[in-house]
Design a protein that fits this description.
Layout: H1 6-17, E1 20-21, E2 24-25, H2 32-35, H3 44-53, H4 67-78, H5 83-99, H6 103-110, H7 124-127, H8 138-143
Antiparallel strand pairs: 1-2
Length: 144
């Protein structure tokens, strides 16, 4: 027969209290306004909008919410396109651009900046840290 210590019982009860939305745990220690941004598709402004609709203060924390407040947030979020659905839609939009061979689609295929940024310098993030030009030519001078 096994026994549970008081600490183990408290640890298991903490897991049950954590607020989960769409399969993602909302951080307990952060303010709700920030914690909701853990969901893909919710930024600061959308988090504030959700909390305003639910009549919950922005500074409150997830661990302090009642079950009614949690359910109110869930009900508001249900109507929004978030997480997997939103990612699927964005991927579909990019695939459509690639299929019709639009300028933006070709830039996506080649892994280059899509929104008109310059590529002579910069765009290292998009291209990787690849230096295709010769540079200053100093190394060639040193070898002679």
């Amino acid at each position: 027969m096994f026994t549970l210590s008081v600490k183990q019982i408290q640890d298991t009860s903490k897991d049950k209290d954590k607020m989960r939305l769409l399969g993602i745990t909302i951080p307990d220690e952060k303010r709700l306004e920030i914690g909701l941004t853990a969901l893909y598709g919710i930024g600061r402004s959308r988090a504030q909008e959700i909390l305003n609709k639910a009549n919950i203060s922005h500074g409150s924390q997830a661990k302090d919410l009642s079950t009614e407040q949690e359910n109110e947030i869930r009900k508001i979020i249900e109507g929004m396109k978030l997480e997997g659905d939103l990612k699927r839609e964005v991927a579909g939009n990019i695939k459509r651009l690639k299929d019709i061979k639009s300028y933006r689609g070709v830039r996506h295929q080649r892994g280059l900046p899509v929104r008109g940024q310059r590529t002579k310098t910069n765009s290292r993030t998009r291209r990787g840290n690849v230096r295709k030009t010769m540079g200053t030519g100093r190394r060639a001078a040193e070898k002679k």
